[in-house]
C-alpha cells in the first residue's frame, strides 16, 4: 500500500527537501503540497501530514490533521511541538563544567528565535543536570546575556549566508569545551532524519517528541480510576466493617477486620507500584538524556523483546559493570533494561528497584 503524504510548507526550503525524500522513498507518494495560499481541506485523503511551515501556522496544521484522524509529523520549529536533534545532551561533563551557554546562527529571515534545536538542547541539558541543579547563569537582568531556557542562556544570531549553526559552550575553571554543529548542505543533512521520521510518524500514537514517547496519559487515567474505585470500596467496606465489629460476634469481628485490612494492603501495593513506575520512568529519562541507556542493536521477536541469543550476549557487559560499580544506580538500571530485553521481568524489576534505592541515597539531603 502506498502512503499518501501531504506536505504543508512543501513550497519552502525544508518542504522541498521533504518532497524529494518522499518522492524517492518506496511506498510513499506526494499526495498534496500546501503553501501559504492553500486550504487545509486539501489534507483530506492523506495518510500522513508533514508540517514544514511557520510557527504561527503549525498548530492549525496539527489540529486539522488530528480532526481528520491523520498522523502528523512536525518539522516546524518555534512551537511547543518542535522536535530537533540536540548537539549536547551528555550529562557526563556536567559537574566539571558548570557554565553552559548556546550560541546559534541561522539565516536572517528565520522567524523564530531561539531556534527549536537550541531550545531542545537546553531542555535536555537541564534534564541531564536534574540532580545537580541548574547551570551557572546568574544574569537575570541583562538581555545581552541571552534568553534563558531551562536556565541555559541562548544567544541567537541571524545572518545572511548562514544555513544553521549551533555551538554549545561548556566552561569550567580554566577550561572550556565547545560542541559545534554546522549544516553545510540541507538536503544531505536532513534527508536521513526525514526518512526515519516519516516511517516513525506513521506508527506513532499520542505525542512523540524526537524519538521519545509521551503516552503516559492513558495509563494515568486507568490507574487514577482504579484508585478512585478502590477508595470508594474502602469507604463502603469501612461502613460495613464497623457494623460487623460492633456485632460482638467472633466471626463477625474477624470478617470486619479482614474487610478493612485487605483493601488497605491492596492500596499500599498500588501506591508502591505507582511509585516504582514514576521513579523508573524518571531514571530512564535521565539516562536517555545523557545518552547512557543501552544502545546495542538487537534482533527483536514479534513480541518486541530481544531474541534470547542477542539478550544473552548483552548480559556479561552489564553484569560486569554492576560488579565493578555496585553503588552506581546507572549500572543497575542498565542491567534492568538488559534483563527486560531478555524477557526476565522479575530480575529486571529487582535491578531497577536497586537503581531507584541507590539513586535516592545518592541525592543530597534536603
Ligand atoms: N526540525 C528541523 O531539523 C528543521 C526545521 N526547520 C523548520 O522548518 C520550518 C520551515 O523552514 P523553511 O523551509 O526554511 O522556511 P520557508 O520560509 O522556506 O518555508 C515556509 C513554508 O511555509 C509555507 N506557509 C506559510 N504560511 C502558510 C500557511 N498559512 N499555510 C500553509 N503553508 C504556509 C510557505 O508557503 C513555505 O512553503 C521552520 O520553522 C524551520 O525552523 C527547518 C530545517 C530543519
Ligand atoms: O532553517 C531553519 O529555520 C532551521 N531551523 C531549525 C530550528 O529552529 O531548530 C534547525 C534547522 O537546522 C534549520
TrEMBL record:
Pathway: Amino-acid biosynthesis; L-lysine biosynthesis via DAP pathway; (S)-tetrahydrodipicolinate from L-aspartate: step 4/4. SMART domains: TPR. InterPro entries: DapB_C, DapB_N, DapB_N_CS, DHDPR_bac, NAD(P)-bd_dom_sf, TPR-like_helical_dom_sf, TPR_rpt. Keywords: Amino-acid biosynthesis, Cytoplasm, Diaminopimelate biosynthesis, Lysine biosynthesis, Membrane, NAD, NADP, Oxidoreductase, TPR repeat, Transmembrane, Transmembrane helix. TPR repeats lie at residues 329-362. It comes from the Eukaryota. Residues 4-79 form the Dihydrodipicolinate reductase N-terminal domain. It catalyses: (S)-2,3,4,5-tetrahydrodipicolinate + NAD(+) + H2O = (2S,4S)-4-hydroxy-2,3,4,5-tetrahydrodipicolinate + NADH + H(+); (S)-2,3,4,5-tetrahydrodipicolinate + NADP(+) + H2O = (2S,4S)-4-hydroxy-2,3,4,5-tetrahydrodipicolinate + NADPH + H(+). One of its GO terms (biological process) is diaminopimelate biosynthetic process. Its EC number is 1.17.1.8. PANTHER family: 4-HYDROXY-TETRAHYDRODIPICOLINATE REDUCTASE 1, CHLOROPLASTIC-RELATED, DIHYDRODIPICOLINATE REDUCTASE. This is 4-hydroxy-tetrahydrodipicolinate reductase.
Amino acid at each position: 500500500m502506498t502512503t499518501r503524504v501531504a506536505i504543508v510548507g512543501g513550497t519552502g526550503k525544508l518542504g522541498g527537501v521533504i518532497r524529494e525524500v518522499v518522492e524517492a522513498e518506496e511506498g510513499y507518494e506526494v499526495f498534496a503540497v500546501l503553501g501559504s495560499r492553500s486550504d487545509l481541506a486539501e489534507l483530506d485523503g492523506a495518510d500522513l501530514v508533514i508540517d514544514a511551515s511557520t510557527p504561527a501556522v503549525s498548530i492549525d496544521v496539527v489540529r486539522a490533521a488530528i480532526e481528520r484522524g491523520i498522523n502528523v509529523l512536525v518539522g516546524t520549529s518555534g512551537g511547543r511541538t518542535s522536535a530537533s536533534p540536540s548537539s549536547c545532551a551528555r550529562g557526563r561533563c556536567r559537574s566539571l563544567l558548570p557554565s553552559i551557554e548556546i550560541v546559534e546562527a541561522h539565516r536572517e529571515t528565520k522567524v523564530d528565535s531561539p531556534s527549536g534545536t537550541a531550545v531542545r538542547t537546553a531542555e535536555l541539558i537541564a534534564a541531564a543536570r536534574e540532580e545537580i541543579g541548574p547551570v551557572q547563569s546568574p544574569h537575570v537582568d541583562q538581555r545581552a546575556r541571552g534568553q534563558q531556557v531551562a536556565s541555559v542562556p541562548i544567544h541567537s544570531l541571524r545572518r545572511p549566508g548562514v544555513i544553521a549553526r549551533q555551538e554549545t559552550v561548556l566552561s569550567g575553571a580554566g577550561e572550556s569545551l565547545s560542541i559545534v554543529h554546522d549544516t553545510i548542505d540541507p538536503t544531505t543533512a536532513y534527508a536521513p532524519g526525514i526518512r526515519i521520521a516519516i516511517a516513525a510518524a506513521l506508527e506513532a500514537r499520542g505525542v512523540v517528541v524526537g524519538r521519545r514517547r509521551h503516552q503516559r496519559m492513558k495509563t494515568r487515567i486507568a490507574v487514577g480510576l482504579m484508585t478512585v474505585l478502590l477508595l470508594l470500596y474502602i469507604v463502603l467496606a469501612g461502613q460495613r466493617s464497623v457494623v460487623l465489629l460492633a456485632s460482638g460476634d467472633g466471626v463477625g469481628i474477624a470478617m470486619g477486620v479482614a474487610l478493612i485490612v485487605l483493601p488497605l494492603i491492596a492500596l499500599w501495593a498500588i501506591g508502591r507500584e505507582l511509585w516504582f513506575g514514576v521513579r523508573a520512568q524518571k531514571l530512564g529519562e535521565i539516562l536517555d538524556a545523557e545518552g547512557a541507556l543501552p544502545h546495542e542493536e538487537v534482533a527483536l521477536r514479534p513480541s518486541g523483546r530481544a531474541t534470547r541469543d542477542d539478550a544473552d550476549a548483552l548480559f556479561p557487559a552489564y553484569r560486569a559493570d554492576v560488579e565493578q560499580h555496585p553503588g552506581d544506580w546507572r549500572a543497575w538500571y542498565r542491567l534492568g533494561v538488559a534483563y527486560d530485553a531478555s524477557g526476565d521481568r522479575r530480575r529486571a524489576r529487582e535491578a531497577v528497584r536497586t537503581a531507584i534505592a541507590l539513586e535516592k541515597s545518592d541525592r543530597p539531603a534536603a
